[in-house]
Description:
The protein is of the alpha+beta class.
Amino acid sequence: xxxxxxxxxxxxxxxxxxxxxxxxxxxxxxxxxxxxxxxxxxxxxxxxxxxxxxxxxxxxxxxxxxxxxxxxxxxxxxxxxxxxxxxxxxxxxxxxxxxxxxxxxxxxxxxxxxxxxxxxxxxxxxxxxxxxxxxxxxxxxxxxxxxxxxxxxxxxxxxxxxxxxxxxxxxxxxxxxxxxxxxxxxxxxxxxxxxxxxxxxxxxxxxxxxx
Length: 211
């Protein structure tokens, strides 16, 4: 996907605004000072995204949302298991009635019910903030579905979603995403996979076509 310089700027600013709002919302929920940044935003192929996640066989925690409304497709937040544990722990600190320990267990791929719920909320807030910004460009609502947490190999997750896109495109809007809590950083990747017709709508809404 070729973007004009103006479109690249619009896209970067759209992500930046969304991540600021996501950080504010997560900070309020957790009682921690949290910031979210997405310094590297680009359209790329699904293969490139899998490599960003560490390769097709790398186990990741994915928080998935379907996209409905004026934009159709999928959105995913990918996190490494260790980072997902830490992020869930930070968010759960905002709830004084927490009873389930969230320290990283001996089995790093084992997540408690509260942890999964917290991670779903992280995905809901982070991905939802971006979709809200896109909705402003479209001047129509973009509705996410209920978030789901999936623990699986990165390649398997993306292969399943790409099958739903009927293989007409494997264009992915990808952003390296970092959650900052004090000196701690948790790296992830935020992906938006529009259906082919919605990809055109998204590009036009951002003023993104190469002239």
